[in-house]
Amino acid sequence: MTTSDRLFGLPEEAFRFTVPRKGLITKTEIRVLSLAKLDLHPGQVLWDIGAGSGSVGIEAARLVDDLTVCAVEKDEEDYGCLLENVKTFSLSSRFRTVFGKAPEALAGLPAPQRVFVGGSGGRMADLLDACCGDGPSPGIVVNLATVENLSEVLAWAKGRGIEPDILHVQVGRGQPIVGLHRIEALNPVWIVSLFQNPQKAGRSPEERS
Fold first, then answer.
1. Rounded CA separation 28/11 (Å)
2. Which residues of the chain have pLDDT under 70?
């Protein structure tokens, strides 16, 4: 089976991303769990903030028909990788890519039903506020690698009256070593899901109105 034949859980090597400078790509196992938490549906708009290589938005668009992805990335080299990956997977018609720093770069984008945050640029609370605007909060899934960012997200959720769903993920991958195998740990990640009204998370925009 080739990479292009795989329906779900694309390996990191399927994408172009910057290495070893940053390696801004959501690891396959974390991406799969994050997409499950997003609970995407056809016709929705997904914001992919701090998109990096675009792996989350690209996998989402391949899985969900008529999904529009707005991918925002502030680093010039990573943005170049994002553009190339979108083209490689023939998803240009489903993507709106923005080179800029959130939350300012979010202005003018269509209102989202779902938001994935892979990077905040140190302005997590401002970014989450901008995602919500003045209307109903979209379903938001945030990937976090530091306790400081986790604390900020939880404080923001408490202020909004949102009960967060918190998943702490530690992944180990088997690696060969002199004819044997050992487990090599990836950096642990928190996946925090923020849905204003969890019982309605899977319903269409029309049903929620």
1. 6
2. 1-4, 19-24, 135, 197-209
Residue type, 205: P
56 contacts: CB under 8 Å, gap ≥ 6: 26, 31, 34, 35, 48, 116, 118
Domains and CATH numbers, the chain: 3-196 (3.40.50.150)
Query: How many C-beta neighbours within 10 Å does residue 208 have?
Result: 13
Express each pLDDT in 54-72 by its tens digit.
999 999 999 999 999 999 9
Task: Indicate the pTM of the whole model.
Answer: 0.87
Cα 12 from Cα 54, distance rounded (Å)? 11
DSSP 145: -
Contacts of 148 (CB under 8 A, 6+ apart): none
